[in-house]
Design goal:
Distance between the termini: 47 Å
Structural class: alpha/beta
Order of helices and strands: HHHHHHHEHEHHEHEEEHEHEHEEEEEEEH
Helix content: 25-40%
Shape: globular
Radius of gyration: 23 Å
Number of strands: 15
Strand order of the largest sheet: 6-14-7-8-9
Largest sheet: 5 strands, parallel
Length: 410
């Protein structure tokens, strides 16, 4: 009989006042008893809406049933039949808008903690089972994968299972893409990413690092080297700015630069990093998505006394995951909602000393369905900050498109 509790089994976490000073993982994961208890909340629906809500169609009820029965390795094999990166997806996928968003249990109460269970199963496998690479019948067809981020790694893993000779070309000196340069250690441990990457490499995938496709080698040259197909997963690494006065001042970062220097270049270790990062006492992060939450929570851990999220809409319109907003609030991030920056102010030496903002109110919905922010007259004020981080989105690097005739980006 199903466990009809309306609430998920609580996830063990670090205390907010301790974790906001370290880079260790916030969520500590379920134990076996907690996982089994949560798994029994699944109703095993015949129409399986959660599978349709999963971008890679993981057989969710089947793996959860195995967890409920204590068959954890069987659950892992079911997940990995469709998902090559379960430990990662269990932590950072937006389940609340995908599989959990259509869970029947969510109609009255909380959805089944699908992501939490996926994470538990993957972690249990990593900690207790030696990965055995299945025998793969090679088909002799070469495929190139551009980018070793989550899309490229997933593609490479799926193709390798099917017998293709896969080669990954990665521009950076480390593998994982946004998983290593974008998402902080406290949300996704880099050691875990390395383990998942290693599992893909064990399937025979060749990995070439420090290769900038479009510069070191072109797409056309890859085809000339007898690759029959090229998957381009180069990511969205080109940051966007507001185009306001003062964005070129010292102390203004794009979230891409800020998080890359902290996560990939170890700038959180101020004594040993070759590229330490300067964070002032008062930090403003402009934006309301997951990247903004990551940047704000990272700035706190680097010693900022006050960190503010400055977002032009209300909390209901925040695009970040609810869990990330909740964690940010617990850790002390200030939310300055319905506020919009119009100018960054600096001193004679070129350093940030403040940011001029204007208060907003919400009008009618725009084309996306969200209510449009409208500037309130005579509501300008100066926010006292000495670091500004722009986290308002990013777009694909144009290099591959510029060097590949006929290639478009949508």
């Amino acid at each position: 009989m199903a466990n009809m509790s309306l609430n998920k089994v609580a996830m063990p976490e670090q205390d907010p006042n301790i974790r906001n000073k370290n880079f260790e993982e916030v969520a500590l994961g379920y134990g076996i008893e907690q996982a089994i208890e949560e798994a029994t909340r699944c109703l095993q629906c015949k129409h399986k809406p959660c599978v349709g809500g999963c971008p890679v169609n993981v057989p969710i009820p089947e793996f959860i049933k195995q967890v409920a029965e204590g068959n954890l390795e069987e659950a892992y094999q079911i997940i990995t039949s469709e998902n090559s990166l379960p430990a990662i997806c269990g932590r950072v996928c937006p389940q609340e808008s995908q599989c959990e968003g259509v869970c029947v249990r969510g109609i009255k109460g909380e959805a089944v903690g699908i992501g939490r269970l996926e994470r538990f199963v993957a972690d249990y496998h990593i900690q207790n089972v030696e990965t055995v690479v299945p025998e793969i019948q090679k088909n002799g067809i070469k495929v190139a994968v551009v980018g070793a981020g989550p899309a490229g790694l997933s593609c490479a893993g799926d193709l390798a299972k099917r017998g293709y000779d896969v080669t990954i070309f990665e521009a950076l000196h480390d593998l994982g893409g946004v998983l290593i340069y974008g998402i902080p250690e406290f949300r996704l441990p880099k050691k875990l990413v390395a383990t998942e990457v290693d599992n893909i490499a064990k399937m025979g995938v060749t990995i070439n690092k420090n290769v900038v496709v479009g510069r070191s080698i072109t797409i056309e040259e890859l085809f000339e080297e007898d690759y029959k197909a090229v998957f381009v997963g180069s990511g969205a690494g080109l940051p966007k700015f507001l185009g306001i006065e003062g964005e070129n001042l010292n102390g203004v970062y794009s979230a891409n630069e800020f998080l890359t220097r902290v996560n990939l270049m170890k700038a959180y270790n101020q004594d040993q990093s070759p590229t330490p990062i300067r964070v002032g006492d008062n930090v403003a992060v402009v934006g309301g998505g997951n990247v903004a939450m990551d940047a704000a929570r990272t700035a706190l851990r680097l010693g900022a006394k006050e960190v503010s999220i400055v977002y032009r809409r209300s909390e209901d319109e925040l695009p970040a995951r609810r869990e990330e907003v909740h964690h940010a609030k617990e850790e002390g991030v200030v939310f300055r909602l319905l506020n919009n920056p119009i100018k960054v102010i600096g001193n004679e030496a070129g350093w940030v000393t403040g940011m001029e903002c204007v208060k907003m109110e919400l009008g009618e919905p725009d084309a996306s369905g969200r209510r449009s922010p409208i500037e309130m007259p005579n509501s300008n004020y100066i926010l006292d900050v000495n670091t500004v981080i722009m986290a308002i989105g990013q777009s694909p690097n144009p290099l591959i498109r510029q060097t590949t005739p006929g290639l478009d980006v949508r």
